[in-house]
C-alpha cells in the first residue's frame, strides 16, 4: 500500500512560476529581447542554470560561464525579493487540506523540488511543519527527469519507491517519478501529463482514499 507522498513545490503547492517569469522577463528586457509567458512554460521544473540557457537561446545570445553565473544571480536576487513577500494566501487550492489529510492518515510527506529557494517559500507560506523530509535544489546534483530528488526523498522517509506517490506539474517530474519506480499524479493538463497514473486539475480533487485506488493500478 501507499506509505508516502512526495510533492513538487512550484505548480503543485504554490504558484511561484509567476515570480520566476517576472524575474526572467526583466533579465531578457535588460538583454534587449522579449520573453513571453508562452516561452516561460519551457522553464517550469527546469533548474536555474538550464532555465538561463533556454532564455539565452530564445534571445539568440551566447555568453561565457562567468557572465552566465552573474546573470543567474541577478535574476535570483529579483526573484528572492518577490518570494520574501509571500504568505499563506499563495498556497494553491486544496494543497493544505490534502497535506493535512495525508498526515492524519499516517502517510509520510516529503518535498521534491528543483528550487534552491524552497526553504524560504515553505517558511513564508507556513508549510514547513507538514514535511517529514525536504529535498530541494541545494541537496541534489542531477535535475529532473533524473530520479535523484525523489529517490533521496524516499530513502530519507524510510519507505520503498513502490510505496510512494509523486505529485508533479511538469512532464520532466513525472518522468523522474517513473524512473524512480514510483506512481505519480499529474497536476494540470492530461495532454502534457498523460504518462502519470492519474491527472487532476488541482490538489482539491485529491483525497487519501483516492490515493489508495492508484495503488491498485
Ligand atoms: C522550480 C521551478 C523552476 C525553477 C527551479 C529552480 O522547480 O519550477 O521554474 O527554475 O525550481 O528554482 P531556483 O532558481 O529557485 O533554484 P520545482 O521543482 O519546485 O517545480
Ligand atoms: Mg513544478
Automatic annotation (TrEMBL):
Cross-referenced NCBIfam families: bPGM, HAD-SF-IA-v3, PGMB-YQAB-SF
Cofactor(s) for this UniProt protein: Mg(2+)
Signal peptide: none
One function term, GO molecular function aspect: beta-phosphoglucomutase activity
SUPFAM superfamilies assigned to the protein according to its UniProt record, in alphabetical order: HAD-like
Annotated protein name in UniProt: Beta-phosphoglucomutase
Family affiliation: Belongs to the HAD-like hydrolase superfamily. CbbY/CbbZ/Gph/YieH family.
Cofactor remark: Binds 2 magnesium ions per subunit.
Record: residues binding substrate: 8-10, 24, 43-48, 51, 75, 113-117, 144
Active site: 8, 10
Pfam families to which the protein is assigned, alphabetical: Hydrolase
Amino acid at each position: 500500500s501507499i506509505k508516502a507522498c512526495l510533492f513538487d513545490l512550484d505548480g503543485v503547492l504554490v504558484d511561484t512560476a509567476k515570480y520566476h517569469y517576472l524575474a526572467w522577463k526583466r533579465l531578457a528586457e535588460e538583454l534587449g529581447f522579449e520573453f513571453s509567458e508562452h516561452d516561460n512554460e519551457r522553464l517550469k521544473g527546469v533548474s536555474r542554470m538550464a532555465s538561463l540557457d533556454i532564455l539565452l537561446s530564445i534571445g539568440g545570445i551566447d555568453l561565457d560561464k562567468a557572465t552566465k553565473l552573474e546573470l543567474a544571480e541577478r535574476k535570483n536576487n529579483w526573484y528572492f525579493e518577490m518570494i520574501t513577500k509571500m504568505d499563506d494566501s499563495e498556497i494553491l487550492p486544496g494543497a493544505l487540506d490534502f497535506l493535512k489529510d495525508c498526515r492524519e492518515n499516517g502517510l509520510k510527506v516529503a518535498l521534491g523540488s528543483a528550487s534552491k529557494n524552497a526553504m524560504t517559500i515553505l517558511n513564508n507560506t507556513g508549510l514547513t511543519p507538514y514535511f517529514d523530509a525536504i529535498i530541494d535544489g541545494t541537496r541534489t546534483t542531477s535535475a529532473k527527469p533524473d530520479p535523484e530528488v525523489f529517490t533521496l526523498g524516499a530513502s530519507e522517509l524510510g519507505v520503498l519507491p513502490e510505496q510512494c506517490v509523486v505529485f508533479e506539474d511538469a512532464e520532466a517530474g513525472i518522468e523522474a517519478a517513473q524512473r524512480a519506480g514510483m506512481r505519480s499524479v499529474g497536476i494540470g493538463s492530461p495532454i502534457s501529463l498523460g504518462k502519470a497514473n492519474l491527472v487532476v486539475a488541482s490538489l482539491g480533487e485529491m483525497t487519501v482514499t483516492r490515493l489508495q485506488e492508484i495503488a491498485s493500478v
